[in-house]
Each structure stands twice: as C-alpha cells, then as structure tokens.
C-alpha cells in the first residue's frame, strides 16, 4: 500500500455545522457564506481533491466570510466524485487526468458572472488549497478579473508561462510537504523575481506538511497551531491588502 501523501488524517475529524448554504449556478453547485452586512467584495475558495462538501473547506469559507467577504466554494468537480480516503494512491495519476486543475476556466467564469450579476461583487479574490492551489496559480495567469490570489501548497510545474502573473499572488508552502520539493519553491522564487510584474509573495511555514492550513481549530496539534493560525492570518491579510 502506498503511503498517503497528505500525512494528515482526513477520517477522524470533529463535526462541523456550516454557517452558509448551497446554491445552484448554471451547471455548478456551490457553497456560499455571506457576512451579516452588505459588501461588494468577494472571495472564491477552490477546494482540494476531497471536494466542495468536505467540512474543512466549508470551515475556511465561513472563516473568510467572517472577515467581510461574500465567500463561495464551487464544486469544480462538477458533480463527479472527489478523491476519497478509501481510494488507492496507485490510481491517483489517472484520477488527476480527469480532474485537471488547469481546466477550471469555464467554471471560474460562471462563478465570476454570478458574483458580479447576482451578488453585486466589484472586487473578487481567490484562494485555493493543494489541487485548488494549482487551480489558483493557473487562474492568476489567465483571468484578469481576479484582483488577488492565494495559492496554498499548489504549484504549476510544467508550463513555461507560469510566472507571468496578472495580479498579486501569494504562495504558501509547508516546509515538510513531500509533494512539493524545496527546489520547486526556489525555482518559483527565482523565476518570479525575473518575470513577474505584479506583487507576489512566497512563504514557507516551518515543520508543516501538505494540507496543514485547512484544519479546524479543534483538529490542530498544539505544535502546529501557531503556524496554521499564522498562515490563515497571512492569507486573509493578503486578500485585505488588495480587496
């Protein structure tokens, strides 16, 4: 059996009662949470391989909404099955072929249209985790409607044009993430310095594994908690700086 590359237990988790609600937007379902007051600022959250129904990602949506943003997590898998903890990692490469994080443009456009026309959003940011972090990296290269982005432990590795970001982007990594090598982070830093014409930031959090920043407080280990909380604050501060 292959080792689970994410190192955190996605099974034994505390329950979470969500604050938002689900909506249908064209061919996509989405989870939305709004602040208690009117705002014309919005944030799209892109889920990881465990999909839009996973409690941890909904917790993040609610957290960002609490900072004053209309926050939405669309089902970027369009009703198909997310990766499940019971699936075999040997099949992961095949699964990824059918779930390409660089093929999210159509869904992103549908959600942007909804946020602008139905919710009155004027400034829209995006954050994404793992699979979603790769999708954010892609969208920040392609979609000028996104004012700022935060990519958490996701990186596009095989594209020559991956450094010409259109708008400010923040890359968050865990030091002990064995899905992203330190060399890849160094390369990203060097190339952004060379090619990027907008604000960007790269930060590596000590001792943290892949997936670290999504945990709910009661699921955090005491040693990791300060780094998780710092990463979340950094993510929200980046969004607040531009949106």
Automatic annotation (TrEMBL):
UniProt superkingdom: Eukaryota
Molecular function in Gene Ontology: hydrolase activity
Domain Dienelactone hydrolase: 28-241
SUPFAM superfamilies: alpha/beta-Hydrolases
Location, primary (coarse class): cytoplasm
Compartments (UniProt record): Cytoplasm, Cytosol
GO cellular-component term (any): cytosol
Signal peptide (from-to): none
Protein family per UniProt: Belongs to the dienelactone hydrolase family.
Protein name according to UniProt: Carboxymethylenebutenolidase homolog
């Amino acid at each position: 059996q292959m080792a689970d590359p994410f190192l955190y237990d996605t099974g034994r988790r505390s329950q979470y009662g969500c604050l938002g609600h689900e909506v249908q937007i064209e061919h996509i379902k989405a989870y939305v949470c709004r602040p208690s007051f009117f705002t014309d600022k919005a944030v799209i959250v892109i889920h990881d391989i465990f999909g839009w129904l996973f409690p941890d990602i909904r917790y993040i949506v609610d957290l960002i909404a609490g900072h004053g943003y209309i926050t939405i997590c669309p089902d970027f898998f369009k009703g198909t099955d997310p990766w499940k903890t019971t699936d075999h990692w040997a099949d992961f490469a095949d699964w990824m072929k059918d779930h390409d994080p660089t093929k999210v443009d159509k869904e992103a456009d549908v959600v942007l249209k909804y946020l602008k026309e139905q919710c009155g959003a004027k400034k829209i940011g995006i954050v994404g985790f793992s699979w979603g972090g790769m999708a954010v990296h892609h969208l920040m290269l392609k979609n000028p409607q996104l004012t700022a982005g935060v990519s958490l432990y996701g990186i596009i590795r095989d594209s020559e044009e991956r450094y010409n970001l259109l708008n400010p982007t923040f890359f968050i990594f865990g030091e002990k993430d064995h899905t992203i090598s330190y060399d890849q982070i160094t390369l990203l830093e060097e190339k952004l310095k060379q090619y990027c014409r907008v604000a960007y930031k790269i930060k590596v959090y000590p001792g943290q594994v892949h997936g670290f920043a999504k945990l709910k407080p009661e699921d955090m280990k005491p040693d990791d908690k300060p780094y998780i909380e710092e990463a979340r604050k950094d993510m929200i501060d980046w969004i607040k700086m531009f949106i």
